[in-house]
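User: tokens in, sequence out, please.
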């Protein structure tokens, strides 16, 4: 696995966007990471992996999470975007979708004042504006986004563990470090998504992807 040079942008006094390209034996990916420090107990981050394909991107996988301490009510939604759009438009579409989800939750309970989803919607729009017009703002075929407002430590641990185990097994079998890294990344990311997404059909989809493509990569 080979990382390119990182580009870092400060979008506000407490928000940053970083991105780079990652080369593996399984292909090349664009990695974007957005982080916002809201206060000592509230954090927001967005991670995107976009598969580089031709002059644009095939598929993008995004996880947007708002975290804060002592939370007792949790939400999670899965968003799929497909059509003719660019990476910056993808983030703008996600922002609009998350805003609608916030209004949906508020409509179901008039006393509930959503915090996480409005903040996530604003962050996604910030990312859209930051990406627009740059060299990474290329056409994207399809995007998947998981939007949550809870800590996902078990899923992260499971994803990392599955990735490390798969990478170790691949290296023992092939002796190719690059291929082992690609295998570990693929299995780890898909394992994570298969655990955290709220829809069982999409969860099953990622389980199948993990095995089917993993056989060829690993």
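Assistant: Sequence out:
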């Amino acid at each position: 696995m080979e990382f390119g040079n990182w580009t870092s942008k400060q979008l506000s006094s407490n928000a940053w966007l970083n991105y780079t390209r990652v080369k593996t034996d399984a292909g090349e990916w664009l990695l974007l990471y957005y982080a916002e420090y809201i206060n000592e107990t509230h954090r927001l981050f967005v991670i995107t992996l976009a598969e580089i394909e031709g002059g644009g991107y095939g598929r993008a996988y995004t996880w947007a999470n708002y975290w804060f301490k002592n939370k007792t009510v949790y939400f999670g939604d899965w968003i799929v975007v497909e059509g003719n759009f660019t990476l910056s438009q993808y983030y703008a579409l996600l922002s609009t979708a998350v805003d609608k989800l916030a209004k949906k939750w508020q409509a179901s309970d008039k006393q509930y004042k959503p915090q996480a989803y409005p903040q996530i919607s604003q962050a996604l729009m910030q990312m859209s504006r930051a990406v627009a017009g740059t060299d990474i703002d290329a056409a994207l075929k399809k995007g998947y986004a998981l939007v949550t407002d809870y800590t996902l430590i078990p899923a992260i641990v499971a994803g990392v563990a599955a990735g490390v185990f798969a990478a170790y097994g691949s290296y023992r079998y092939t002796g190719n470090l690059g291929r082992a890294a690609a295998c570990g990344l693929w299995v780890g990311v898909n394992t994570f998504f298969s655990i955290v997404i709220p829809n069982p059909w999409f969860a099953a989809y990622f389980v199948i992807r993990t095995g089917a493509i993993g056989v060829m990569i690993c």
